[in-house]
Amino acid sequence: MHGKSIAEHVKCVEAFVKDFGSERIALVTSGGTQAPLEKNTVRFIDNFSMGTRGATSTEYLLAAGYTVIFMHRESSLLPFSRHFPSLFTMLHVEDGKAVSSDAKLVDNIQKSIHYRNRILFVPFVTLDQYLHLLEGICTVLEPLHERVLVYLAAAVSDFYIKHDDLPTHKMKTEEVSLPLSVVPKNLQRLVEDIVPRSFVVSFKLETDESILVEKARKALSSYGHQLVVANMLHTRKEHVVLVDNEKEMHIRLTDKNKEIEEDIIDNIKERHSDHMANAGTAQ
Ligand code: PMT
């Protein structure tokens, strides 16, 4: 969390949104949440998410004209730098300076400088931080109504141990006890009470394909939002299904030089345009 409290992060969002100049703004959530197993945390429940979906989508959202609040798991992948997992080995020293002539690196540094006034980074680590930040940021965004796209690509923990049930100290191996509770879904409250006019996209991840679309439909009817992007764990980079109240649309990556997020964002931008137009929001 870079030493900032939830309230301080929300204040930064307030200041950022005040100066926001573009017609659309996206809140992107990205990466996995950590659920502690002890108050003095040594162990925790975590998940596989590296934040690729969120970081990649953010690059395409910026290119599509969005201002982005990038709410990400600390140390998960970030837009532009995500392409370079081993930056250190790409550099050499010339006249006492670390330099590189790698064209892709130069291009991505230039892009990140170009967009730096249109992106705000808000880090989280734990499930609790995620839930409070999401609610706080959405509250700040509410007055922007239909211009807001909420893009929930984070992999949020489904289980946690309630604060009162957490042992204070490192759990002893001979006394292991994990009284797990199911994390209450906050999406319905978000959609109904906090950002009722925004365009809200949630993600659904499954490992059993036979229940994927059914689960996405269930989420749509339970939460009342606009779109679910459904994906399977092992094929999520090549295939997604966009599920709305009327139909399903498959996006399949056919060009190996492309990223699936480019097509996802193209499609979502169009849907968001319709959402704004239906509400009479100027574009
Ligand atoms: O980061 P990558 O490695 O690229 O992986 C990307 C991804 C697979 C994580 C991403 O594409 C994805 O599918 N994210 C959603 C994972 C998921 O299935 O979440 P869920 O079923 O636990 O939650 C569904 C929706 O409910 C989510 O959009 C979430 O914001 C929302 N939710 C979750 C928990 C909670 N307490 N309240 C919620 O409202």
Automatic annotation (TrEMBL):
GO terms for biological process: coenzyme A biosynthetic process. Gene3D superfamilies: CoaB-like. It comes from the Eukaryota. InterPro entries: CoaB-like_sf, DNA/pantothenate-metab_flavo_C. Residues 142-269 form the DNA/pantothenate metabolism flavoprotein C-terminal domain. Coiled coil: none annotated. GO terms for cellular component: cytoplasm; nucleus. One of its GO terms (molecular function) is phosphopantothenate--cysteine ligase activity. Pfam families: DFP. Belongs to the PPC synthetase family. This is DFP domain-containing protein. It comes from Pristionchus pacificus.
